[in-house]
Amino acid sequence: MFRYQEEILANEIKSIVEKYGNKRENLLRILQELNDKYNYLSEQVLQNVASCLKISPSEVYGVATFYSFLNTKPKGKYVIRVCKTIVCDLNGKDKIINTIENELGIKVGETTKDGLFTLEYTNCMGMCNQGPAMLINNDIYYNLDPEKVVEIIEKYARGGDSNVD
Amino acid sequence: MLIDSKKQILFSEFTPGYGLSIALKMSPEKIIDIMIRSTLRGRGGAGFPTGLKWQATAKAQKTPKYIVCNADEGEPGTFKDRILLSDYSEKLFEGMTIAGKAVGSNKGIVYLRGEYRYLLKKLDKVLNRLRKIGYLGKNILNSGFDFDIEIVLGSGAYICGEETALIESLEGNRGEARNKPPFPTDEGYLGCPTVVNNVETFSYVPYIINKGADWFMEIGTEKSKGSKLFSISGDVKFPGVYELPFGVSIAEILELVGARDTKAVQVGGASGICISKKDFDKPLAFESLPPGGSIIVFNKSRDMLKVLKNFIEFFVEESCGQCTPCREGNYRLLEAVEKLERGECSINYLKVLRKLAESMKYTSKCGLGQTSPNAFLSIIDNFKGEILARPKKVND
Ligand SMILES: Cc1cc2nc3c(=O)[nH]c(=O)nc-3n(C[C@H](O)[C@H](O)[C@H](O)COP(=O)(O)O)c2cc1C
Ligand code: SF4
Ligand code: FES
Questions:
Q1: To pair with A15 at 20 to 30 A between CA atoms, which of A162, B211, B288, B313?
Q2: Global ipTM
Q3: Does domain A78-157 have CATH number 3.30.450.40?
Q4: Are the Cβ atoms of B314 and A85 closer than 8 angstroms?
Q5: Are B319 and B360 a contacting pair, CB within 8 Å?
């Protein structure tokens, strides 16, 4: 990275840390916001946060890797998380996964070449009465069937962001 | 069985601010006395008496004190708190405010699971409205009492529903459970006395303050008073959240939700137990079948070994990895299930694993490891016939 880009990044991070206050207990909130902003938490981001909060980078890294919604590697613009827990399993999550894999040409855990979608499993997200269910970034989709899933994904592919308030 | 609306509380009429205005005129001791007499028990799983928890926090010397709402609802099959958060959050916020008055706290925090982030805007709107009409903020309803509530998001970790892991997460750490004692009532958030209660628990509070302990105790069984929200899903015609009195039996519930050909029912989520037909007449109550929040129904077409595998995979993924019995134990159980699947598990080996599962219950540091063997033990016991001695798989 060029020197001036590094400086921009450092300043951006500094201002976010200052917004929350540079107290240790704000670390998770700071990481959540940075994860949204940059799509993932690079080593450089984590180091900057550590120096702002005056704690060791390994401590920051430890927190970043603990939570499944924080990424320490680049992900697609849209992260699709399909529930794999018991009730969605009963209700046909395999079909949903299969459909998405076929449609996007990726397997669970992979990102499409255009960087648009990452497909993941997640555990029960409290939608069991309306499964199978999935999250795309922060938006929830439920009562899914293969056709519906394709429609939803096409909407995102066209750039139609979040549908829910 | 028809739903008896006289035995419903949370789904009954509610006048916002009514319980609050009564509580603000009471002394903290009086509020705690009513809560203790109501015998309300926590609805987040463990069933600890809420009044006693508040009393301990009120008595703790250190200040400031905190009121934390556990909205991490991650137990598989549980979605009742989502309904309360999305449609009835005034009750929750009012209950938290009354708790604040009772224990001497001015700050409430809702720890909302990351998966429910889409509810955040709506919840913030409700909080703002409550501030505007003077139900939150400084000098609430001219009583001189200040209280406000902030919402903090989780980031996708089931273990953060355990109260000490939740506190670690609130403090910006990895969500790793702490040893207890000290209990959060003495040393919770930032080392200060903290009440941690479930969403549903707080939601009963304004009703109890308004209508009294005796009224609350008219519903339920000897040792489990009041009603309970049940999240019902799986092989049923009408899945959803139902408010029913404690003491209702599984059989009654199955009829209510239109379940057919039921083979098994998982009571209390992945960390609960799986029962077969012989137990369908048992009442759901803390003293018999502790209900947690979740009822998952399986019909005759389901393969119980597959069900068990799904549960164990859940625990393998969600264990925080801090202690060996849980981290390693759940792996061993998963291996055993894979052996069973291939028809390669001897009954002797299963006996060894039984011992392991029993010891996990006693040696794990927190509730996750202590309860994760429940599904294994109950499915192995109640569905032996279909699980043991499967034919060996030839290929694959
Ligand atoms: C692994 C694990 C997960 C838990 N998840 C939740 C949860 O999502 N929501 C909840 O209210 N309690 C959960 N609990 C129980 C809490 O530790 C705690 O007992 C509860 O929040 C206390 O509130 P209550 O007395 O109102 O039930 C969990 C416990 C364990 C061991
Ligand atoms: S029992 Fe499991 S979840 Fe609990 S502290 Fe030990 S490893 Fe972590
Ligand atoms: S099991 Fe999928 S949302 Fe609960």
A1: A162
A2: 0.94
A3: no
A4: yes
A5: no
| Structure confidence by residue, pLDDT tens digits, A144-159 | 999 999 999 999 999 8
Tell me the C-alpha distance between B211 and B13, whole Å: 12
Name every chain A residue with its beta carbon within 8 A of the beta carbon of B235: 90
The model scores a pTM over 0.95: yes
Q: How far apart are CA A123 and CA B158, in angstroms?
A: 8
Chain B residues whose CB is inside 8 A of the A85 CB are: 76, 270, 310, 314
Nearest-CA distance from A161 to chain B in Å?
14
Does B382 contact chain A (CB < 8 Å)? no
Residues paired with B231 in a beta bridge: B241, B294
For every residue of B156-192, DSSP letters joined together read S-GGGGSHHHHHHHHTTS---PPPSSSPTTTS-GGGS
CA distance B226 to B314: 32
- Smallest Cβ distance to B233: which of A31, A68, A87? A87
Domain ranges of chain A: 2-66, 78-157
Judged by CB atoms closer than 8 Å, whether chains meet at A129 and B233 is answered as yes
Could you say which DSSP state residue B117 is in? G
